[in-house]
Amino acid sequence: MHILMANILEAFGGWAAGGFGAGGGFFAVKWLLEFIAGRTDAREAALDQDTRFVIENLKAEVARLFDRVTTLETEVAECRQAHANAEAKVIQLLAQRQGLGEAREHAQLIVSAERVAARQQGN
Q1: Residue 1: DSSP 8-state
Q2: What is the value of pTM for the model shown?
Q3: Where are the domains of the chain?
Q4: Nearest to residue 18, comparing CAs of 34, 32, 10?
Q5: Rounded distance, CA 9 to CA 16, Å?
Q6: DSSP alpha helices (H): ranges in the chain?
Q7: pLDDT given at position 8
């Protein structure tokens, strides 16, 4: 019986050592996987934060550019209106100048007719 107990204790010791070794190995592998997964999660969290930062900055840039485009469109509309007004004024001045030229021509015709009439009376 003593030998049987010794064999059982010996076998138990081997089995216990194997069990502790397997458990320790399993724990080490589990810890390593959790460590890697944790690092991956941390990296993903950092990427998510960077992505949110980029998106927020892009939203701000889009809003700034939208305001700038709105301002520029308003200024272009004002410039077009001023250009149209200037063109209308130029056309008006050209018409006045042409009318003035016609009036001068008409006045010269009258003066010439009066001179011709005066010469005919004087002759």
Answers
A1: -
A2: 0.45
A3: 2-122
A4: 10
A5: 10
A6: 2-122
A7: 66
